[in-house]
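Subject: design request, 178 residues
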């Protein structure tokens, strides 16, 4: 079950460490890219205010804006979709992108069964976000990606050079884009 909303090829993911450069990073993305707003480090009022400011910048460049929160919050805040572990995306809401995270075959299978719009499969390479995590590497990433019924977005240590070397058109980054 695929969502009819078109998917950007490149996604910028927010984090506490890239917060100060997000406006600049959003402006430098190709028009029509994607932005995943997490900002777990902020309390509710501050998180809402920062989202509003960044959504305004993202919209100026025609970027899709996805939030790591509930579908209800996404609708209330004016996001294009939600992001998170496959179970957190259920039940599906019409008109929203549902971007699931996956790190192994079981999580990828669950994302398939629950009808995710796309899957962020990670970590492809070593990453500062999870330095203790064992990267999949290019071969294992490709092997797992073949099992997805929806588009796969490569995540983890990604930047333009690594995406090109991997030969993967859809990718996301925190540090690699900010």
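Subject: RE: design request

Done. Sequence follows.
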């Amino acid at each position: 079950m695929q969502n009819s909303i078109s998917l950007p090829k490149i996604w910028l993911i927010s984090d506490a460490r890239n917060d100060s450069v997000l406006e600049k990073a959003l402006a430098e993305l190709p028009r029509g890219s994607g932005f995943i707003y997490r900002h777990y480090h902020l309390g509710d009022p501050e998180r809402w205010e920062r989202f509003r400011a960044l959504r305004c910048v993202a919209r100026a460049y025609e970027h899709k804006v996805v939030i790591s929160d509930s579908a209800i919050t996404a609708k209330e805040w004016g996001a294009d979709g939600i992001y998170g572990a496959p179970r957190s995306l259920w039940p599906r809401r019409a008109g929203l992108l549902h971007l699931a995270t996956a790190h192994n075959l079981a999580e990828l299978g669950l994302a398939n069964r629950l009808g995710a719009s796309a899957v962020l499969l990670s970590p492809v390479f070593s990453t500062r976000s999870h330095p203790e995590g064992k990267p999949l590497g290019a071969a294992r990433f490709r092997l797992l990606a073949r099992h997805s019924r929806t588009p796969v977005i490569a995540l983890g240590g990604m930047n333009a050079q690594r995406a090109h070397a991997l030969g993967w058109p859809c990718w996301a980054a925190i540090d690699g884009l900010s």
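The chain has six helices and eight strands.
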